[in-house]
Amino acid sequence: MGQKIERDHQRFRKLVRGKVKSNLSKYISRGEMIGKKGKDLVSIPLPQIEVPQFRYGNKGAGGAGQGDGEVGQSLGGPKGDGKGKAGDQPGGGHIQEVELTMEELASILGEELALPRILPRGKKNIVTTRDKYTGVRQAGPESLRHFKRTFKRALKRQIAAGIYNPEKPIVIPVREDKQYRSWKEVQQPQSVAVIIYMMDVSGSMTDEQKEIVRIEAFWIDTWIKAHYQGIENVYIIHDAVAQEVDENTFYHTRESGGTKISSAYELANKIIDARYPPDQWNVYAFHFSDGDNWGDDIPHCIEILQEKLLPKVNLFGYGQVESPYGSGEFYDYVHELLNEKPNVVASRIPDRDAILNSIKEFLGTGR
Description:
The protein is α/β, with parallel strands linked by helices.
């Protein structure tokens, strides 16, 4: 019975996976998958999948093959005229929320967008020490006692001593019989990465543009985290001045000042130098803006990118979230770097429907 239930559960999981994959664009554009984001699981509303169940009709109401009837007669009850008051009975249709792990979600994203696996750039990794159980020994804590080996030694001793009674198979280990698991410390390298998000929060960036950024960042996180043992996130907001903030502040801050993109790039470069040396960390930087920038600042931005940031990062992605208030000209300057720098990606995101293609542009490099 247990095996049958497990098979049915696995079959249901495959159906869910197929539904999510076939409707991935819709879920991403609506942001449904991140409505209840937890530590390891994401709830996804799937109204198309119903839990199998029996449904019973009214007792004595008859049915197909019962009693007299006329050709074309409806098998249901009497129909009303569609007019009536609000009812007090529960509805028959419910939306079921199915939980997927972040690993499953990343796998679905990779399959649907045909994303290449990320190849870590740095050879240096953070090394952690873990205990690995490699054998047995005569002494140790009772919590590590090897029950099977201890039992076998006690049984052999009793048989050899002639005190084992098959009719009353009681085996009592003594001190000499006890065996304990032994371990040794093993050095394990872990690839680590940092994702630096930068966003323009000047008055020209609306709440809808920030919501698009939030959805994109969730999927970028999901894919990159599937390739590294350790991930850290850095959030930088800027108008004419940049500052590092927490995630909540990143998505809920709006300023009324002008825009100076170079301030964010300068701060990102300082943070990398101070906390994330490129020979040890895989560094990813993503900047989201409506393309508006103080005109005299553009040459300085490109200079910082070419001489400071790009040599240190695995990937730099610029996402231009279209706004009715922004000029949008900065995209063209970043786009000119594409042929010169293989670790640069520029993407236009006019609305939510463009999010899926933008994610593919950002993550399709395999960096």
